[in-house]
Amino acid sequence: MKSIGVTLAATIAAALLVAVGIAATTWRTDEGRPVMTEERVPEAPQVESVPAAEEQKEEPRDPRFIGSDLLPGRETAMRVPETHFVKGTPLEGPFPGKATAYFGMGCFWGAERLFWQLEGVHSTSVGYAGGTTRNPTYREVCGGLTGHAEVVKVVFDPEQIGYDALLRVFWESHDPTQGMRQGADLGTQYRSCIYYVDDAQSELALASKERFEAALTTAGRSTITTEIRDAPTFFYAEEYHQQYLGKVPDGYCGIKGTGVTCPADFSKAKSSKAKDIVPAASE
Fold first, then answer.
1. pLDDT in tens, 42-54
2. Which domains does the chain have, with CATH numbers?
3. Which residue blocks in 101-243 are alpha helix, DSSP H?
4. Are 150 and 192 a contacting pair, CB within 8 Å?
5. Which residues are catalytic, by number?
6. What is the pTM of this model?
7. Nearest C-alpha neighbor of 17 from the set 39, 37, 1, 47
């Protein structure tokens, strides 16, 4: 009689679970080990209701303007290799007789490869710039509390390739209208940016923006959101980020342009050759 009573009680309890739709605990086998999982007991069919409006993802705000909660960082700089993994040239410099440019265009892995493949580019490296946190880590930058963007440092020979040519590659290889994102990469660190080192680069950057924005408008695209300002302190990223796609050729690359061509006539406004050379002492 006792066993019959226990069975009857279990049957009644199971029926109550089905009636109210309470989550029941079940067990499954995972590689020979019993693992407890939560499964929802099926409920009675409901009358289909009007679906709610799809929840809109909030665009990330620029952390430089949301208060004083940015991380302070540290004084110790990130250790990086002495030489470029692909080109074999120095990674940190100094680079006498060479010019330097800084671009942010989404994930820096694909952006760096784009530039190191150009004839006349002497060296490239990736890092963080535009924020306030000193010597940040990748995890901190992704957390949105450093103010930094992912940036590529491009060291080039101005006798072989001009700053105007680098700008055309920059504009045509990503979408500069997306604000705090680039494609599927969402976050303030993925914003489009140009950090110029002198007046010559500034004039060319602004002139190219004006001409490319006109081309984008003609193509039915939005206005440019690229941040253009004087170059802030550049903090090198971790060693494994440097020339990442040279080490992992099939790794993730989010580079994708708009299909709109950047007009070349902006370069007539100011020649960048021999005028955008950064003194070795500033490196």
1. 343 343 433 343 4
2. 8-40 (no CATH), 63-282 (3.30.1060.10)
3. 108-116, 138-142, 163-172, 199-218
4. no
5. 107
6. 0.74
7. 39
